[in-house]
Amino acid sequence: MALGEPGLNHGGFHRRSANHGKFMEKFGRRDTSVVSKNNSSCHVQIDSIALFPDILEAIDRLRLPTVLQEAVTVVQFGSSNGQISVDNVVAILQRLKEKFGRTIGQEPEYQVFFQDLPTIDFNALIKLLNASILPNQDVHPVDCYAAAVAGSMYDRLFPVSTLHFGCAMFDLNCLSRIPESVSDRHSPAYNGGQTGLHRSSVATIKAYSAQAKEDLCNFLAARADEMADYGILCLNFRCRDSDSSTSYSTPHEVIGDCVWDDFIDKGIISADMRDSFNPLHYWRSVREITEVVADFSSDFEVHKEVVQQVHIPAGSASVASTPSPSLSSTAMLRAHFGKEVTNLYLQRYEQVLLEGIGNQTLSYHQSTTWMIVVLIRKPRG
Ligand SMILES: C[S@@+](CC[C@H](N)C(=O)[O-])C[C@H]1O[C@@H](n2cnc3c(N)ncnc32)[C@H](O)[C@@H]1O
Question: Transport: is it a keyword of this entry (predicted)?
């Protein structure tokens, strides 16, 4: 379902030149340290510094729609309702305008879709968009038509062959559902005894892996229909370092389950309550991603597959949110354990982390693996 938003029908975005300059300086790096301030979200920093160059470079490959009157359509899947999402789209539009300004005299029109689950607060997103279009003499507006699209990115959302540029950043680690077997006490994949996947059994990881494969297949099948010929799709994933023989997560993240164990020992929560929580996120291995992408070789040409290490500060609030570098994990914890217990957990997590850094059993940075995949829709016969 696409929701046209009256207030956005002809929005003009404005430039955020300071951040833009920062990530432009970092082009070409493949081993990146991320500096984070308290309360900032890691994915904001990674987006800007480490991953965005590949996405901007991909934009330069985009061809104009064959029908000149057609608008250039840009979609951000799993856009959330945060400022970063608006800023990312501004940067994408600016690059598109630079590109087409160089290559043709007349600018195309732009249609931008902010896509996410129906459960997010789209009103908050719309307020942000409206704030971004306020007049400001210091900056040049980027005109576009914007709309919010509510639905699951694992389903079809757009008409056939209508999207020119799409990106899913920090979204494809979110699964469409928690595999049923991991909540079934009689299944070998039962994930009792933990809240994450950091110390789970091979059977549990296999159940998540199967769900992640199904989801990525559904995502790519839907996009194969929706992308216009030569349309570009940019995806990023947090990954495991390699396959199941290596540990699923960093030593910093394992702290989380130790804190929950302690809470059970102290009677703060019951073991049942802990055991019935399972994450909705999964870090695929690079091989798991490339294999699914290869299955779509008749639809997409792989323009780029880049794997890089990003060193995330251990002390950032988002690391404490357990399975994902995003605050959405904290929201899941709150929904299950309640606000009070979750806040206690976050405090305790940070305390254990700082102690570990202080006595040098943990490093300040945790090294995480990320993969960027840039696909080009092959022309249809
Ligand atoms: C970590 S946030 C990333 C937000 C944004 N892409 C960014 O880079 O700032 C993940 C987003 O994916 C969204 N999401 C999760 N599952 C989804 C699905 N099945 N379809 C669409 N969006 C989804 C969540 O609601 C959330 O807004």
Answer: no
Is any ligand 1 atom within 6 A of the Cβ of residue 152? yes
Q: Is the CB of 215 under 6 A from ligand 1?
A: no
Q: What is the pLDDT of residues 195-218, one digit of tens each?
A: 988 888 999 999 999 999 999 999
Q: Which of 199, 209, 177, 203 is nearest to 190 (CA)?
A: 203
Q: Nearest C-alpha to atom 19 of ligand 1 is from which residue? A: 152
CB 373 within 8 A of CB 235: yes
Shortest-distance atom of ligand 1 to CA 154: 19
| Protein residue closest via CA to atom 18 of ligand 1 | 152
Quote the ligand 1 centre to 88 CA distance (angstroms).
14
User: In the CATH scheme, what is the code of domain 2-377?
Assistant: 3.40.50.150
Strands 2-3 and 72-77: unpaired
- What does 21-82 look like in DSSP terms, one character per residue? HHHHHTTT-SEEE----TT--HHHHHIIIIIHHHHHHHHTTPPPPSSTTSPEEEEEET-TTS
Quick one: which of 120, 107, 111 has its CA closest to 159? 111
- Domain locations along the chain: 2-377
Distance 138 CA to ligand 1 centre (A): 32
Which parts of the chain register pLDDT below 70? 1-51, 66-68, 102-106, 133-142, 242-247, 315-328
Radius of gyration of the chain (CA): 21
Residue minimizing CA distance to atom 23 of ligand 1: 78
